[in-house]
Write a structure and sequence with these properties.
The chain is of the alpha+beta class. It has a domain of 150 residues: Neutral Protease, domain 2 (Orthogonal Bundle). It has 12 helices and 23 strands. The strands form 6 sheets. An 8-stranded mixed β-sheet has the order 6-5-9-3-2-12-15-14, with no helix packed on it. A 4-stranded antiparallel β-sheet has the order 10-11-16-13, with no helix packed on it. A hairpin with a 4-residue loop joins strand 10 and strand 11.
Length: 476
Amino acid sequence: MLRRSRISTSTPLIALLLAVALTSPLASSAGAGPAPELPDPYYPADGAPGLDVLHYDVHDRYRFSDRFVSGVTTVRLKPDAEAASFSLDLLLKVDSVKVDGVEAEFDKPDAHELVITPADPLTASDPVDVTVRYHGFPQRISWQGESNWLADGHEVVTMNEPHMAAWWFPSNDHPSDKARFDIRITTGKDREVVSNGVRVERTVNGKRATTHWRMSDPMATYLAFFAAGDFVIEKGKAHGLRYYNAVSRQLGLADRQRALFALRKSAKVTAWLQDELGDYPFASTGGVVTSLDVGFALENQSRPTYGSWIYGGVVVHELAHQWFGDAVSVARWQDIWLNEGFATYMELRWTEAHGGRSTSASLHQQYRDSREDDSFWSLDIADPCAGQSPCDWRKLFASAVYERGSMALAALRNVIGTDDFRKLLRRWVSLHGGGNATVEEFEALAEEVSGDELDVFFQAWLSADTAPPNTAAYGL
């Protein structure tokens, strides 16, 4: 995720250099992650321990006139142990639940939790199909201060972090439980529907059409999305990668052309990121630009979503997330700097690789611009919401998580050397792609790759409440 406020206030020079670089003519199999640690102290209502979701088959019907959703989702899951009941996360009203085709009892003790009691207890490690029918008006729903449905009479896009799934399908809603997805959306046949992965088919039935998208690689629930509306579509293959881009026709002509120009760079940026980080993790790339007034962009797996203010730098950021955040997902929300710090660092690295300021020069400039007692240094970015539950998203996505996170990586590169740093990033993705990982695991891998003792370095950059000493030992 990249919030517009960060773009406009924190990195104007970086944004300019990235835009210049993008316009210059010069210019998987699942990995084993740690066992889910649920409940997550940041969001204890999310997800359920002891469940492993294998696949979601989501079929929602969307009505633009009143923004009504009705749907049926089949969740294929297996329990770690015998279970007489289990729970999923869903904010819509539930009509019925079946487990392996047999009606099951269900209850909603609160707006968010769906407790299911099957006719027969679940058996350890035996997969079952849980089919839930539901309906509601997601735009009217607020949960823990979040009102996440983004829609008007012409367009809808399901994009948000850390929560989005519960507004439109039932799930084990925590990034530690990734699964494969089939997503079908039925709406008026005059609307285009875009989602994750590869479009399988579009079937017209009278005045309505159902579009089927498939994500064949493991995906965290908050990264699943769909957008529906009147879009300009561009698709094809470039730089050896399939792409599918969509830009809202609700935008003015100049904004549409600018957005399409930025999205057309997605394949080029992705190809460059492959050289830096290893093979692109998914089967397709691209993006969606919405006309809705969104103040952030989001790294939906394989196909990020952007506001009309899209520019080159945010494309680099969201596509870098395809490796850092999507392929390798956080095991706990406190590990968020592994997503945002890394994507922000790759913005700096793109600028450097395309003739702009070096990552080291950017590091030193940011260090000089932040006073030693500045609040920028007081947040523990390895645990930004320590002691707070639920976590305030303003801390989870604080500028320090992005900027200090990227500075820490630039400094680490200075300490261990460019060759070992490149090896570290590629091994990180190779080891954990398709799964989840923690800050502690990254620190351990950095020590393994470099042969250096880095505890003091990481403590200073991630957790200390003052700026690291301005010495070579800290990459400065």
